[in-house]
Design brief:
By secondary structure, the protein is α+β, with helices and mostly antiparallel strands. The chain folds into two domains: about 5-145, Creatinase/prolidase N-terminal domain (Creatine Amidinohydrolase, Chain A, domain 1), CATH 3.40.350.10; about 150-370, Creatine Amidinohydrolase (Alpha-Beta Complex). Helices cover about 35% and strands about 20% of the residues. The chain is built from eleven helices and 18 strands. The strands form four sheets. The protein has a six-stranded mixed sheet, with helices on both faces. A hairpin with a 6-residue loop joins strand 16 (about 345-350) and strand 17 (about 355-360). Helix 8 runs antiparallel to helix 9. It is elongated and about 70 Å long.
Length: about 375
Amino acid sequence: MITREIALARAQQIIASQKLDALVVASPWNVRYLAGTYFLTQKVIPDRLALVVVTPNAEPSFIYCSIEDASAQDESWLDDLRGYTEFVDRPMHVLADQLRVRGIATGRIGIETDYLVSTHSAELRAELPQADFVAAQGWVDKARMIKTPEEIAWLGKTTLATDAAIRAAFAATQIGEPQFNVGDRMVAHARRSGADGLQHLVLATGDTAFKVHAVPDITPLKAGVPLRVDFGMTWHGYLSDIARTAFLAPLQPRQADTYRRLEAVQQTVIASLRAGTRACDAYALCAKAYARQGLPFGMPHIGHSIGLVLHEKPMLHPRDETVLMPGMVFMVEPAVVAHDGVYHTEDMVEITEGDPRVLSRSADWAEPMEIGG
C-alpha cells in the first residue's frame, strides 16, 4: 500500500509544480492517501468533514471530527492531529485558522473544490477573502495514477481474493435457490480473506438480466439463463472490482459462442495495453475487435483504473489521451447485450515495461462456467 514518504513527496511535488502555498484535500480517498487512514463517517455523513493540510515546510495537519480521535491516533501516520467538536466548531473555520497560523491566509491554496459542497467553499472564501483558491482534485488524482509496487501487490492480492469468492459462490450455487444466497456466499468468502466491507454487489439473471445494476433478491434462480455478477469489497481503504458471467444449466450453444467471442475481445484489449499506448487507442482497438467478432458495441468506456476509488484515472474511453505507463493498473471490462441478458467480464491488468500482466484470475475463465449441470 502507499507509504507516508511517497504520498507526502507526491503532495510536495504538486505544491512545487503548481506554485502553491498549501494543498488541502477533503475527499475520503485523498484523505486516506495523505493521512494513511479514513473514517466511515466521511462517506455516510459527508458534513462531518476530514481534511489534510500540506504546506512546504511543516508537518501536515489532519483536521477531523473529534469523535474519531481514537482512530486518528491509532491509524494515521500524521503527527499534527486536530480534532474539532461537532456542532460547536465549524470545519472550515478550523481550516482557516490553520492556514492563518501558517501565515498563508493570502496565499495560493489548492483545494478539492470538486468535492466540497458550495456552502463549504463559500464559507472558506468568506473566512479568507484574500486567499487565491484553485481547484486541486485533478492534480491529486493524477498523482495516484502510478501505483507503487506495494500498492500493485495489494491490489493484485485483493482482486484475486474477490475473484476466488465469485468462483466459490458459483460452484456452490443450485438452481432454484434465492438469488441473494449467491451474493451472501461471495461476501462471506471475501470477508474470510480479509475484506472489511462491501463496496458493491450486482447480480443480474432471469427477469433482471438486462438491468446493468440489478441487486439480488429472493427470486429463485432459473435454469438455462446467464448469471452475471459485478462485485467489489473494501480492503483497508482500497477497493476490488470483478465482473463475471456464468450460466445456469443447461448451457446453450448460442450462449457459449457469445461468451467465447466476448472473451476473445477482452484478450485482444489486454494484449494491447502496453506502455506508450494511449487510453483512447485501446478503446478504438476494442471497438474494432467487437466488429471482428460480430458483436454489437456501444460502450462509453471499456475499463478504468482502480485503487482508493472505484473509477480512478485514466479511463479507457475515446477522449482520454493519457499515455499508459508502467505502474498503472486497469480493470478491463468489455460487455455485450446478448439475446438473454448482458454478458460482462472484468480483469485487472498491470502495465509493465513489457507485456501486460493479468492479476485477477484465480481460475480459468476462458470457457463459460456452467452452474448446476
